[in-house]
């Protein structure tokens, strides 16, 4: 068991604190060396990857934080993602979506999606890949994107 210097206990991503009334509180734990560096908004990645980053951080905040630490965690996300080039509107939009999801917690029946006719994995090139994906969707082909290889990845490793 590791206890931090301020009396808080980190367990995985959970920071457990003792409240003044003697009960336990919990929030998102970050090491002192955490830099808040995430995938930058101007990076050459598909927009769904950037949206998934925000959704993941918001989901973690709502899953781990209690009602007292949640507002501070949401503010931390807005600040951290702003330093990575994201607009605060994107964070607030994902936060509102999570709140609606938690409000309407009625389990919906799972419906099976029909199998796609085929799958295609293509390198992501802004503007072009989306057009190809729309064209393939007409033929019931599911498209996935991967990152374009960098020059250093194409060159072999030099040997002595």
Q: Rg from C-alpha positions?
A: 21 Å
**Total DSSP helices:** 5
Overall number of domains? 2
Biggest sheet strand order reads 1-2-3
What portion of residues is helical? 25-40%
Largest sheet: 3 strands, antiparallel
Q: Which percent band covers the strand fraction?
A: 15-25%
Series of H and E elements: EEEHHHEHEH
What best-fitting shape do the alpha-carbon axes yield? Answer: extended
The tally of strands reads 5
Mean pLDDT across residues = 84
Structural class of the secondary structure composition?
alpha+beta
Low-confidence spans: 1-5
Query: How far apart are the first and last residues' alpha carbons, in Å?
Result: 47 Å
Characterization of the model:
- The chain is an alpha+beta fold.
- It folds into 2 domains: 9-103, no CATH class; 118-146, no CATH class.
- It is 39% helix and 16% strand.
- The chain contains 5 helices and 5 strands, in the order βββαααβαβα.
- The protein has helices at 47-64, 70-83, 88-103, 128-137, 151-154; strands at 9-11, 14-18, 24-28, 118-123, 141-146.
- A 3-stranded antiparallel sheet has the order 1-2-3.
- A hairpin with a 5-residue loop joins β2 (14-18) and β3.
- The longest helix has 18 residues, at 47-64.
- The chain is extended.
- The model is unreliable at 1-5 (pLDDT under 50).
């Amino acid at each position: 068991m590791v206890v931090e210097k301020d009396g808080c206990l980190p367990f995985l991503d959970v920071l457990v604190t003792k409240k003044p009334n003697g009960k336990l509180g919990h929030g998102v734990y970050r090491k002192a060396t955490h830099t808040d560096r995430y995938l930058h908004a101007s990076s050459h990645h598909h927009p769904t990857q950037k949206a998934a980053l925000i959704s993941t951080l918001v989901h973690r905040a709502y899953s781990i934080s209690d009602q007292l630490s949640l507002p501070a965690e949401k503010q931390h996300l807005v600040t951290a993602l702003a330093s990575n080039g994201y607009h605060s509107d994107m964070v607030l939009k994902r936060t509102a979506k999570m709140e609606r999801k938690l409000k309407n917690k009625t389990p919906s029946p799972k419906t099976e999606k029909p199998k796609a006719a085929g799958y295609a994995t293509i390198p992501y090139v802004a503007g072009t890949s989306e057009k190809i994906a729309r064209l393939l969707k007409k033929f019931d082909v599911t498209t996935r994107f991967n990152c374009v290889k960098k020059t250093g990845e194409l060159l072999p490793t030099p040997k002595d």
